[in-house]
Specification:
Mean pLDDT: 78
Strand content: 15-25%
Distance between the termini: 73 Å
Number of helices: 16
Structural class: alpha/beta
Low-confidence stretches: 1-36, 59-80, 82-127, 145-167, 578-608
CATH architecture of the largest domain: 3-Layer(bba) Sandwich
CATH topology of the largest domain: FAD/NAD(P)-binding domain
Oligomer: single chain
Number of domains: 4
Shape: globular
Length: about 675
């Protein structure tokens, strides 16, 4: 009975009371001689009651006694997102709390004024002593049993947390002194650009010996599937072996570029007559001496090289409200960049905990759609908040951005645009986010997806130039920062002959720029090629939205969109009125950008539901500098050709027909 009362309040109180009563007073009283039995019984009972009250009092003063998840006692309000229609059967919205000085998300303390035993100090009598002794003994015994199971459960939980937070990964090699002192090719970074460079080097120099310095403890892998395909291939409670997933072609592959056997032990690289690639895992570059061709690691180890590539990638940005938060809050804030982050977030979702994604870009939009699809059969709240007006607002025209936001809401995501997190506080096992519009969100975890910045920290000590506006190592057309020192991928700021100086954070750019840098590092015949590639990107936002883009797809530019008009049969199916001339009208043009930077179609019968398939042209000086293919695939080559022509077009409807938007 004592234990039950304590469990109704908080588990740790029961546990603490047992330890004190059982191990201290009980043993002390039990071993004491010449003490009347009734005194022993009464003292034991009073000790249990006193310690229980002390434990509860102490617990009330502790705001966050543990990190165990607490179920949300209140359901989602009927209208968590004002003005938005409820599209999903199960509530996905966050718990919004109106701003009020008296409102508090802390759990109210449960009053147990009668104490554990239910009697006051002076209420004992000799006639009831036997009953009280039995109750006290049962209470202590019950406390001991409960504490045993609680300790066992806590031990299992601790082991589980240790397994999650400390994976069996370590540096390779364990000592930096085992690394080669001099290598022909040194690649800094373990991502797509670095691995693509190795393939190019090996193709042109079959016996090349390449050393990769990577600050990660994993072999090179792709990042795009982390927010898309991996979620579609996963089942609750398990992680796909080798992070395998299905590509859009239907072929299955691993997230890793190559299996472990593909790589050479760094300590054996120089002794291998056929060369190969070795990866020093868990090491970071501190500076590089381009003149003497010496790379210095963060522990002072120096490696000489003949040719070097900087493919350091980028790191996720944060927000001051999260970055400056206390540690107990930062424990519930995560960033999403690696397979370890995928596993961590998947365990959270599998445990049916709520997730709030901050950001409306590629990663934030893709991730919230993937989580909504993955958890569509469970009652999990997926929230997305950001300061902009709609999803992908930096890429998509305003009308298409808002239409996309509506589609994401229909998937069950509660999207809250136009807000910022003003304050964050720890709330039981989760967080309480106070927004600048007066609302509050309760969530178990926050995933920050607000972009990334190039990793150029070595520039200051290395005398390398970093673009003050775009970031990244400044390189020439051949991707050289200095002689025999190249930069590629996210960390490079290159000159595009058509579009000017740029820095691109797309997988395709990393692969192609890494390949070109590798070819130029080998430099057969002393010829180095300029980087003239117009990189592409792709994104999937659920089953109904997929798009590919190429060139400069900047929403601040004037845009012209051409979308296919639905047939009468499709419009009837979607409860739309058929158009008078839909049989003859092939496309719906958006007005020329000379009228406005971006406008919706002027045709009054054009519905928002018609943005199912089309092409968006991005213009600068009346020339096409970017093309977005909306639910149109395998046309990137054509789009690249149109951009490279660098010319003006009188009728973009005719250009749109080349993409066969009705096929």
């Amino acid at each position: 009975m004592i234990c039950l009362r304590l469990l109704n309040y908080k588990v740790p109180a029961c546990r603490q009371t047992m330890i004190i009563a059982r191990r201290t007073k009980f043993n002390e009283l039990h071993n004491r001689e010449n003490v009347p039995r009734i005194v022993l019984k009464r003292n034991l009972h009073q000790t249990v009651k006193k310690r229980a009250l002390e434990a509860r009092t102490k617990l009330k003063k502790t705001e966050y006694p543990n990190n165990r998840p607490c179920p949300d006692p209140s359901p989602c309000p009927s209208s968590p997102c004002p003005g938005k229609k409820e599209q999903s059967k199960k509530p996905k919205c966050p718990q919004f709390i109106p701003k009020s000085p008296t409102s508090s998300a802390k759990h109210e303390s449960v009053s147990h004024g009668d104490g554990v035993g239910g009697q006051g100090k002076g209420g004992d009598s000799e006639g009831n002593s036997s009953i009280k002794w039995i109750l006290a003994a049962l209470g202590v015994a019950g406390l001991g049993a409960v504490a045993y199971f609680m300790q066992r459960e806590a031990g299992q939980s601790d082991q589980s947390q240790k397994k999650e937070c400390a994976p069996a990964l370590k540096k390779v090699p364990e000592l930096s002194s085992d690394l080669p002192k001099k290598v022909p090719y040194l690649l800094v970074g373990g991502g797509a650009a670095s691995f693509s460079a190795f393939r190019a080097i090996k193709s042109n120099d079959p016996k090349a010996k390449v050393l990769v310095i990577s600050n990660e403890l994993l072999k090179p892998y792709m990042r795009p599937p982390l927010s898309k395909e991996l979620w579609y291939a996963s089942q609750p409670g398990e992680v796909p072996k080798d992070y395998r997933f299905k590509q859009w072609t239907g072929a299955e592959r691993s997230l890793f570029f190559e299996p472990d056997e593909f790589f050479i032990d760094p300590t054996k690289l120089l002794d291998n007559p056929n060369g190969g690639i070795a990866i020093a895992q868990g090491y970071a570059l501190k500076k590089i001496d381009a003149k003497n061709r010496i790379a210095t690691l963060d522990d002072g180890t120096q490696i000489e090289y003949e040719k070097c590539l900087l493919a350091t990638g980028c790191s996720p940005k944060s927000l001051p409200v999260f970055e400056n938060a206390p540690k107990n809050i930062q424990d519930k804030i995560m960033y999403y960049r690696s397979p370890n982050d995928f596993e961590k977030l998947k365990k959270i979702v599998d445990a049916k905990k709520s997730v709030t994604i901050v950001g409306n870009g590629f990663l934030g939009s893709e991730l919230c759609c993937s989580l909504a699809t993955y958890s569509k059969d469970t009652n999990i709240k997926i929230n997305q908040i950001y300061a902009e007006s709609g999803n992908m607002s930096k890429v998509l025209p305003e009308y298409l951005s808002k239409w996309t936001t509506q589609k994401i809401e229909e998937m069950g995501v509660c999207v809250v645009p136009g807000v910022q997190v003003k304050e964050v506080n720890r709330e039981q096992s989760g967080l309480k986010l106070a927004l600048n519009n007066g609302q509050t969100i309760l969530t178990d975890v926050v995933v920050v997806c607000v972009g990334c910045e190039a990793n150029t920290s070595i520039a200051a000590l290395s005398g390398l130039e970093v673009d003050s506006d775009k970031g990244g190592f400044v390189v020439n057309a051949e991707l050289e920062a200095r002689q025999d020192l190249f930069a590629a991928g996210d960390a490079s700021c290159f000159y595009d002959p058509l579009l000017g100086r740029r820095r691109v954070e797309h997988h395709d750019h990393s692969v192609i720029s890494g390949r070109l840098a590798g070819e130029n590092m080998v430099g057969k015949g002393g010829i180095k090629k300029p980087y003239e590639h117009q990189s592409m990107f792709w994104s999937d936002l659920g089953p109904g939205i997929g798009y590919e883009g190429i060139g400069r797809t900047d929403a601040s530019l004037p845009t012209v969109g051409v979308f296919a008009l639905k047939s009468d049969e499709e419009r009837k199916r979607d409860n739309l009125e058929p158009t008078e001339d839909s049989a003859s009208k092939e496309t719906i043009p958006i007005p020329e950008p000379k009228i406005a930077r971006e406008q919706k179609p002027t045709d009054q019968k054009q519905s928002e539901h018609d943005y199912q398939k089309g092409v968006v042209f991005y213009l600068q000086n009346n020339k096409i500098v970017g093309i977005l293919l909306w639910n149109i695939f395998n046309r990137v080559g054509l789009a690249r050709t149109i951009i490279n022509q660098n010319k003006s077009y009188d009728d973009l409807n005719e250009v749109a027909k080349l993409f066969e938007i009705h096929s």
